[in-house]
What we know:
Layout: E1 9-12, E2 15-18, E3 22-23, H1 39-51, E4 56-58, H2 67-76, E5 84-89, E6 91-93, E7 99-101, H3 105-119, E8 124-130, H4 144-155, E9 159-165, H5 169-176, E10 181-187, H6 196-205, E11 208-212, H7 224-232, H8 237-248, H9 261-269, H10 277-284
The structure holds NADP nicotinamide-adenine-dinucleotide phosphate.
Amino acid sequence: MTATQPTTSITLGERLVKRMGYGAMQLAGPGVFGPPKDHDGALAVLRAAIAAGVNHIDTSDFYGPFVTNHLIREALAPYPQDLVIVTKVGARRGDDASWLRADSPEELTDAVHSNLRNLGVDVLDVVNMRAWGNMHSPDESSIEAPFSTLAKLQQQGLIRHLGVSNVSAAQVAEAQGIAPVVCVQNHYNLVHRADDALIDQLAGQGIAYVPFFPLGGFSPVQSQTLNDVASELAATPMQVALAWLLQRAPNILLIPGTSSVAHLQQNLAAQDVVLSPEQVSRLNSL
Ligand SMILES: NC(=O)c1ccc[n+]([C@@H]2O[C@H](COP(=O)([O-])OP(=O)(O)OC[C@H]3O[C@@H](n4cnc5c(N)ncnc54)[C@H](OP(=O)(O)O)[C@@H]3O)[C@@H](O)[C@H]2O)c1
């Protein structure tokens, strides 16, 4: 047993969600651009996630663009009562698949309305303000202007809860000075641990921390230690990477991404993988 044995659900906004959720980004075409290679296969992944009890899905209009939101709507609407869909704004896609900053008041307002339309809902459960930073790590620029725009859209009743993504501790504090923050979504996994202090700080405040690239992203983490621990537990290396995140802190919610039902099922089963303190300490030293 580890020191932090995970509970299965934690609060996100006013809703209880399972700690093992699903990230929909991998459902779009190559480079997160265009339609999936296998449309029906993508619908099957979403439906299998819900059938297995997942009630937290992460998405954005800029995956595709619009592709993952359309797939989510096609596969799952009318949505289960307990499903929390988290989307994000702050970027858009160029015609050449580039990722472009889009956080002016007009762009953010359009993005919120576009997410509402594409998901087919009247209110967005949670919207993350995705700060631009250095693509996958934050900078210290102010997020006051874009986050204030989202706070106004929340006051208009278009958004239930707000989160922030790709942010530093100072940027989280800046956002909290404007409106409550229910989740922080940053790059974090076994081998990318810049947020260790931030995770503990947010745990103390009861705020969910949602690592993006929990498996390492487009090139999942590879390590002999991970393989060794996996074989000791008759688990897969990816299951061990997820189990390590679950034991890391009680406020961590997982959204591993996959385009495969088999991988989805393996990832969900990671919640049953129990790491010993000795295995955790070997993994910590990666
Ligand atoms: N806020 C942000 O800026 C931001 C940035 C990136 C991502 N996100 C969100 O975070 C979610 C998770 O990140 P991610 O999907 O990019 O990366 P990830 O979850 O770390 O890894 C996804 C990769 O791992 C593979 N994979 C998944 N399960 C596997 C398994 N059991 N065995 C072997 N390979 C497996 C997937 O390929 P297969 O499809 O073949 O399984 C895919 O290549 C995204 O879906 C998205 O919702 C947010």
